[in-house]
Amino acid sequence: MGKGTGYWDKSEWTLREEPRLGQRFYLLIKEVREKSAEDVPQIVLTRSDDLFIRKLLEQEVSQIKNGIIAIHDILRLPGLVSKVMVERGKVAMEKGLRIDPAGTCIGEEGEKAKSVSRLIYPERIDFADWSEDKKKLLPKLLSPVKLIKLNIKKEQE
Predict the structure, then answer these.
(1) Is the Cβ–Cβ distance between 88 and 99 less than 8 Å?
(2) What is the full DSSP assignment across the chain?
(3) How far apart are CA 109 and CA 128, in angstroms?
(4) pLDDT digits (tens, 9 = 90+) for 67-125
């Protein structure tokens, strides 16, 4: 494979993150740059990219990895909260499986969500079932806040 030098720039840290020497982290390889002055490739590492959360979920939630559940989108404030919108995946649709995508990602007694949360601590992770209907989706994304009234203005051309 060869050698390279990993760089985890402060801009790729999440909020409230202050790494200590010897501390272990899960990181995502964001980019591999051509050889540097030391004649080795530079490997840019990150924890703040949305793809980091997507890859962790694929690793921790087998139904995502297997295509039973699909991640529609991720809204994220790195270090604070990730809101993951999930839906039935291609495999579930082909096999006609009736599943609860968000519930499956959370797991029994929240064990799957907790396992991901431990890896991204202190960031919290929430799941919501994707819906084209904004009136159904927004309350799920804003949870635990209870909406009393929701007005959605149509975009002007």
Answers:
(1) yes
(2) ----EEE--GGGSPTT----TT-----EEEEEEEE-TTSSEEEEEESSSHHHHHHHHHHH-HHHHTTSEEEEEEEEETTTEEEEEEEE-HHHHHHT----HHHHHH-GGGHHHHHHHHHSTT-EEEEEE--S-HHHHHHHHHTTSPPS----PPPP-
(3) 16
(4) 999 999 999 999 899 999 999 999 988 999 999 999 999 989 988 888 888 888 888 99
Look up tokens 């797991």; give the residue.
107
pLDDT in tens, 3-36: 778 888 888 888 878 888 888 888 999 998 887 6
Q: Which domains does the chain have, with CATH numbers?
A: 5-46 (no CATH), 50-142 (3.30.300.20)
